[in-house]
Specification:
Layout lengths: L2 H5 L13 H6 L8 H15 L2 H10 L11 H23 L5 E3 L3 H9 L5 H21 L1 H8 L2 H23 L2 E3 L10 E3 L8 H18 L5 H20 L31 H5 L2 H30 L10 H18 L4 E3 L3 H6 L5 H13 L12 H16 L13 H13 L3 H18 L3 H27 L2
Antiparallel strand pairs: 1-4, 2-3
Length: 481
């Protein structure tokens, strides 16, 4: 043995580091993240989307079902927070993705303004459960790819644009910024500005103040801009009502609650009627409602999951890790939304805010979900927020959805009219179903008229036929009366 070999240091392999429970569950090191970054990202995601706990009761509470019954704000608030908490934590643990779920905007409008007037609330939530079951079955059977390939991307985008216009109109009407003309049948102007063609009253001032504040904060990219604006506008409304006796707020008066903390009200939990809606609204109408729910929720979720995953750098060769699990949780979110009474839950685009703060794993979702669980104790606050303070969020978010117009090929004659009909008829007829149906029928007819019927495909042609029957059913029934 030489002197060099004697003096050489002894090299021993370092013992493998023991993986913590969090590392095993969320693969923090593999995704180049830390606990601190995930916590920060989860808090940011929660702040960015916590407005839904206040906004969902406004949307669902603005409509009555076929019996005239309205949902309790406290019960909807509890249902919204409960479903968001459970499903967001589940997404973190099962999907290991920085994606948060809550009651989907636009989809809740379908439940409130299209389905509820034709059936009872339990029946409407029963259809929501069936929607979730359909999405889960599609995710595990491979039907998802067929439907996605059948419906052209421009029409999917047009649905998003139409829903954006729709919820913006709902916000304007809820705030009293736009009102219906009492004699609309005898005038060329069906709606007007304010109650008399002009804006007046402090409630309108609160709405305009909240809207402008929200626009400025979002333009400056302030985290939680929507929630901050709702809170400030609500405080302004409370001061006007409590300090100066201002009235005219509508369904929700901004009066201070007797207590800030209260036990959650689970009164809506489990009140579902799976198949009663088919009897109340009719088999065809209920089927179309169900199809519209599946269409809106499924494709919105796919787009959101893909875009947020890309931003987080999780996609590999265009594929998202654990996509099957993520889609299963998303489908389960719709089921949970029906069981709790909060409307379908889906992945929120605001999850991108947490990704921007460094979130890369499901730990961020667990953090956001636990924060949603904490809001269950503060349901009395939801009864303080007037429509004028919450409605600006509908207008701003609707505008963000309409921005998808930039992805529509307006120069292509195959899509111009179908896309326009889809986007325009949704707000004009106050019906997402009408817009989707008109767009699909127009698209198929144009393809047939141009000798490109093979491009429409049998599945899309069948869907167009279903919608044609839906539009004609009342006229056909009238012939046999």
């Amino acid at each position: 043995m030489t002197q060099t070999e004697i003096d050489a240091p002894v090299v021993t392999e370092a013992p493998p580091q023991r993986r913590s429970l969090l590392e095993k569950l969320f693969e923090l090191r593999a995704r180049q993240s830390t606990i601190g970054r995930e916590v920060r990202g989860g808090v940011t995601t929660f702040v960015a989307m916590a407005y839904i706990v206040l906004l969902n009761p406004l949307i669902l509470g603005a409509s009555a079902d076929i019996t005239g019954a309205r949902l309790s704000a406290a019960q909807v608030t509890t249902a919204t927070a409960l479903a968001a908490a459970v499903m967001t934590v589940l997404m973190g643990l099962v999907g290991n993705a920085p994606l948060a779920l809550a009651a989907g905007l636009g989809i809740n409008g379908i439940v409130a303004f299209q389905m509820a007037p034709s059936m009872t609330w339990p029946q409407a939530f029963g259809l929501v459960v069936l929607e979730g079951v359909c999405i889960v079955l599609m995710a595990v059977s491979g039907v998802r790819e067929r439907i996605m390939n059948a419906i052209p991307r421009p029409l999917k985008t047009a649905i998003t644009v139409g829903i954006g216009l729709y919820i913006a109109l709902v916000g304007l009407v809820s705030a009293g910024f736009v009102t219906r003309m009492p004699d609309a049948a005898q005038t060329t102007v069906p709606v007007r500005l304010g109650a008399s063609g002009h804006l007046h009253g402090w409630p309108i001032v609160v709405f305009c103040f909240g809207l402008l504040l929200m626009i400025v904060l979002m333009a400056r990219k302030v985290p939680g801009a929507v929630l901050i604006s709702i809170g400030v506008a609500t405080a302004f409304a409370v001061v006007l009502h409590e300090g100066f006796g201002v009235g005219g707020w509508g369904l929700t008066t901004p009066a201070l609650p007797d207590q800030l903390v209260a036990a959650p009200d689970f009164g809506l939990f489990g009140h579902i009627d799976l198949f009663g809606g088919f009897a109340s609204a009719g088999a065809l109408a209920a089927t179309v409602f169900l199809f519209t729910l599946v269409l809106s929720g499924f494709f919105d979720a796919m787009g959101t999951i893909t875009s947020v995953s890309d931003e987080a750098g999780l996609s590999k060769n265009g594929k998202v890790p654990r996509m099957g699990r993520i889609l299963l949780v998303d489908g389960a979110g719709a089921i949970a939304g029906g069981v709790t009474g909060s409307s379908p839950n889906t992945v929120f685009l605001e999850s991108a805010a947490g990704v921007g703060e460094g979130a890369r794993t499901g730990l961020a979702s667990v953090v956001a979900g636990l924060l949603f669980a904490g809001t269950l104790l503060f349901t009395p606050l939801a009864g303080v927020v007037p429509a004028q303070a919450a409605a600006p969020a509908l207008v701003v978010i609707g505008g963000m959805m309409v921005a998808q117009c930039r992805n529509i090929p307006w120069h292509d004659p195959d899509y111009t009219i179908p896309v326009f009909l889809t986007a325009a008829l949704i707000p004009f007829t106050y019906s997402i179903t009408n817009g989707v149906g008109a767009g699909l029928i127009a698209f198929v007819l144009i393809k047939i008229g141009r000798g490109k019927w093979r491009e429409a495909g049998w599945l899309l042609s069948l869907l167009a036929l279903v919608f044609a029957v839906y539009f004609a059913v009342d006229g056909v029934e009238a012939l046999f009366r």
